[in-house]
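Materials and Methods. Structural model of DEBR0S2_15808g1_1. The 137-residue sequence of DEBR0S2_15808g1_1 from Dekkera bruxellensis was retrieved and submitted for structure prediction as follows.
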Amino acid sequence: MRIRRNFVIALFLTSLIALYLGLANISIVHDKIVHLGVFFILTTLFYWTVELRSQRTWNLVVFIICTIVAGIGSEFIQHAISPFRTFDSGDIITNVAGSTLAMLSSIIYRRLYTKHKYRKGQQVGLNLEDEMHFQHL
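The predicted structure was written out as tokens:
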């Protein structure tokens, strides 16, 4: 397992900004676009924070934490602790959409990058499962 410190720092700072946006008494004109963008950025940063040997396991962990727990749970928590915010199911949909788009983008990018490096013969930390997958491509 490898932890990328720069991504941890960026994730922490971005999370503070997201927390402020989620709890502050401010009105944003394009609220749904902000939800989509924030969850896209947070999920992307979280996805690239850790590198495990089993990428499928990490994909599942990221999906559960970012999409299900944060994407859905944050709206309930925001409603419970902030007197300025109201519950909006549309926010949950855009949170989940932003997180899902980030997951798909990151997975596709990782596969294309790994495939490119594999074809060039460079070491990229492929596990046996990935090597078998790329032999069929």
